[in-house]
Amino acid sequence: MINNITIKDFRGIQSGSIQKFRKFNIFVGANNSGKSAVMEAIYLASTVNQEVGLLRETDQDVSSNTVMLVNQDLLGNNPLNLIAGKHSDSADLLNFSRDQDAFVIVKVKDLKAVLQEFELDLGKSKPSPDSLFLFGFDTEQNQELTQLLWQNSENIKSKNRTIFCWYPDLTYYYKGSAVWSIAGQPPAAKYTFFCDTSMVKSYIPIAFYRYFLNEVPGWTQRIAKHFGNIFEIKDPFTVQFVPITGHPDRLQGWIAREDKPALSIDAFGDGARAAFKLLVPLVVMAEMATEAEPGLLLWEEPEAFQNPQTLGNLLNEVVKIIQDKPIQVFISTHNLELVAYIAQMLQTKDLNSEQTMVFQMNLSQGKLQTIWIDPKDLKTSLEFGSDLRNWKDFKPPFQFALQEK
Question: Which residue from 109, 147, 219, 241 lies 20 to 30 Å from 201 (Cα-Cα)?
């Protein structure tokens, strides 16, 4: 399980750290408070496991290290593509050159970066060019490299994983380099899933479907059960997957009731589509993740497209799926109803208070600020009318009141 994160120059965060992560973590804050940046940093740090060699010239010799490039996540996405596609508007960021096929020479655009030029020995691995904008490494095995990148590494413990990124659009004010570190046991890249609003328009990769259809018993039946609970569908129905015309590598989900024609999930509202496309990979993760290869769900704005009642049902089903599973969850939100549902689930013990933490976040002139709110204090805070979405005093046009469930 990831325990904490320390960040320097990643996206809008010039510096900051968050401690005390638990199994179930909720980031609450206003727009531009650093929530998404932290989620993306965790995601990228969790999906590096493709080993390559790092060669760099020192004053006396050539130094070598084993580092890791990003690999595919649960749905087969290239994680760097997924994150950079949300933020990049640069036309030419390929700031490296190839020396034959096995070696890539990297020159970092950030003139202040302590690691300015180095060479990646790809060996037999054939990563895509889009994977060559960051690498990760275990600090315990690469202490000299850790000292070099962090310079002051007092807070970087031996069990950390450090990431060095030279993709300018993902760095603070386009500096050109960023470094961050996570502590604890990282998840398996193949069981890591980043769910944001873009998932609504996505389709299921056919390779993902074919593989897990044979690996997860009752997969489609489980999806149907959870989907029916969320939207309170009483009539029996099944879930099917059908090829998409013009997209031979993708499938679309369909809902088939016994007494009505089947409908594609696109025929439903965005709320149903968002829930369905969360459930498909999450049910797989819950079945496949192990203590040795744990899972990770990064869920951005669960409230998107959902009315309050459906949001509560959706959150309840997600908790049921991950309960007692080796899966860590990070949620980012600026929705107070979601926080209130969390408080209620702690009251009813549907959520374990020892495994849950809420973080109030703020970003001021590049400095990440956080206040952790223990579950024992969350209910009291909401009952007194505290609006955790805002760092400073704010008077909303109406007041929420937490009610007993």
Answer: 219
- DSSP codes of every residue in 312-332: HHHHHHHHHHHTTSSEEEEEE
Range(s) of the domain holding residue 64: 2-21+32-189
Contact by Cβ (8 Å): 236, 228: no
Question: Which residues, other chains included, contact 200 with Cβ-Cβ below 8 Å and sequence gap of 6+?
Answer: 270, 273, 274, 277, 305
Q: Interior CA angle at 159 toward 153 and 165, to 5°?
A: 60
Question: Does this model's pTM top 0.85?
Answer: yes
Q: Do 7 and 16 form a contact (C-beta atoms < 8 A)?
A: yes
Flag whether 253 is in a domain. Answer: no
Task: Give per-residue pLDDT as tens, 34-43.
Answer: 999 999 999 9
Number of structural domains the chain divides into: 1
Identify whether 119 is part of a domain: yes
Residue 304: CA count within 13 A, CB half-sphere: 18
Q: Report yes or no on 155 lying in a domain.
A: yes
pLDDT digits (tens, 9 = 90+) for 136-189: 999 888 888 988 898 866 666 667 899 999 999 999 999 999 999 999 999 999
**Residue 7 covered by a domain:** yes
Buried b (16+ CB within 10 A) or exposed e, 197-215: eebbeebbbbebbeebeee
